[in-house]
Fold this sequence. Notes:
With 434 residues, the protein is an alpha/beta fold. It folds into 4 domains: 4-37 and 195-346, Molybdenum Cofactor Biosythetic Enzyme, Chain A (3-Layer(aba) Sandwich), CATH 3.40.980; 38-61 and 159-193, Molybdopterin biosynthesis moea protein, domain 2, CATH 3.90.105; 66-155, Beta Complex (Molybdopterin biosynthesis moeA protein, domain 3), CATH 2.170.190.11; 357-429, MoeA, C-terminal, domain IV (Beta-clip), CATH 2.40.340.10. Helices cover 19% and strands 29% of the residues. It contains 8 helices and 26 strands. It has helices spanning 4-8, 21-30, 176-184, 223-233, 248-261, 279-286, 328-346, 401-405, and strands at residues 38-42, 55-56, 66-67, 71-74, 86-95, 109-113, 125-128, 133-134, 140-144, 154-155, 166-168, 189-193, 197-203, 207-208, 219-220, 237-244, 264-268, 287-293, 296-297, 301-308, 318-324, 357-361, 372-381, 387-391, 408-412, 424-429. A 6-stranded mixed β-sheet has the order 7-4-6-5-9-8, with no helix packed on it. It has a 6-stranded mixed β-sheet with strand order 16-13-17-21-20-18, with helices on both faces. A hairpin with a 5-residue loop joins β8 and β9. α2 (21-30) packs parallel to α7. The protein is elongated and about 95 Å long. GO terms for molecular function: metal ion binding; molybdopterin molybdotransferase activity. Belongs to the MoeA family. One of its GO terms (biological process) is Mo-molybdopterin cofactor biosynthetic process. Pathway: Cofactor biosynthesis; molybdopterin biosynthesis. Its cofactor is Mg(2+).
Amino acid sequence: MTTLNEFSRCVAQYDPHALPVAAAQAIVRQWAEPVAAVERVALRDALDRVLAADIVSPIDVPSHDNSAMDGYAFQRAALATGASDSVHLTIVGKALAGHPFAGRVDASQCVRVMTGACMPADCDTVVPQELVECSADSASIRFAADAVAAGANRRRAGEDLARGHAALRAGRIVRASDLGLLASLGIGEVKVRRRLRVAFFSTGDELRSLGEPLDPGSVYDSNRYTLFAMLRRLNLDTLDLGVVRDEPAALEAALRSAAANADVVLTSGGVSVGEADFTKQLLQTFGDVAFWSMAMRPGRPLAFGRIWSGERPGVGLPALFFGLPGNPVAVMVAFYQIVREVLLLMSGATPRPLPTIHATSRQAIRKHAGRTEFQRGVAEQDAHGQWHVTPTGSQSSGVLSSMSEANCFIVLGHDEGAIAEGERVAIMLFDGLI
């Protein structure tokens, strides 16, 4: 069995003590095996689920040629008479959505049509109603010959989606618009991957759950709530194992239980070099770790590997393991930059890179080359649509309020140094992410 550590050493820029972000992303991506189980769900329950198979359209959409607007349908031959710069047509009927006109139409005639109505036989062009003049008795219309092009304002059958073509691809996370599309095809159930199961817990004797009194030196555990929210946003099944004390036996029991019941295990705290950080010791017994530290700020102490529910590697049930930092902001940065994509891949989804845009920094930013930094910032557009960004002040990884105050990450690359006021920087907006 190839170990994660052996595989990781073959990755460019591998450094187990200060792994570049790009190298860490490459390593974890390679071990993101999608869940195999598939289930069929009703359309209303498919929102935010991952499609397990392509959805092939059983019908043409639209199912018939129809009018793209309210107006009058006629034959294009009426535009080519050349006898006048205007077209005069007799109205011979009306077509409404769901109520087609069944008669024939010759080159001197037209049919009143509403948006979505079937195009009458022999008609291939629609002139909008606002471009015509109606006769006093509303029996005929007149319009300029150059007011509309031949074939205009006609939607053809299958123009949106043709029968037998893929409407949605496997790996897509179903969105609200997709539910409407699937309903338009008459599809009431779809095959989706089962939800990924993620177990998480916090470690530390100083942590207290909500409702417990705070002793001297203790703090309320916030990391489980941010982790819960970030996992909930991805529509995953979660298992909250609470707060685990800094005791080897308790930590071992929590890790083994998590591995037995989940696909992925997330912990916060306990992966640094403190005297009471036992995670590293335990994972050497029943785990396989690729790296323990990253060249990233915040989020330097971050472990990635596999653990098993048995007494040694390869025994029992396996799970991917992410040992996140203990500081609240570092937990969120590590989740979005390292963990999120893996969870999506394991869910069977086809994730896209998180989008970044560029903005002008309103102040100088201190930065040392040799690590990637994700600073919190407030971005805004000026009157000309140009983006500007200002850091939120203290960039300490323990200041969780800075995440609530900010609306973006300022992304400072591995090789970048200090940023001068007025210099362009990459930003990653929180909207749609956090």
